[in-house]
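Q: what sequence does this backbone want?
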């Protein structure tokens, strides 16, 4: 993604937080490092999660939210995200 507007950054941050349960600060940090590519940022988050602070519990993504996100873009009557779903995702990110 080349230039990402403030509105797009806010939207991506909110989506990252809603899926991962992370803080806004962590979400923005991972997204910036990933050039605002949501999938890359989430992959980095799960492969190298931020350290938890004393007394806090480890955050776990909500499987229902992940399924809902996948279902939003998957092909009807199929189990994968095809061209139409990818186009819809790109439009949602634009």
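A:
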């Amino acid at each position: 993604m080349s230039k990402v507007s403030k509105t797009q950054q806010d939207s991506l941050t909110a989506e990252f937080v809603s899926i991962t349960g992370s803080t806004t600060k962590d979400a923005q940090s991972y997204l910036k490092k990933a050039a605002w590519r949501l999938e890359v940022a989430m992959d980095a988050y799960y492969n190298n999660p931020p350290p938890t602070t004393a007394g806090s519990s480890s955050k776990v993504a909500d499987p229902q939210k992940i399924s809902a996100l996948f279902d939003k873009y998957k092909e009807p009557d199929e189990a994968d995200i095809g061209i139409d779903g990818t186009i819809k995702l790109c439009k949602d990110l634009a």
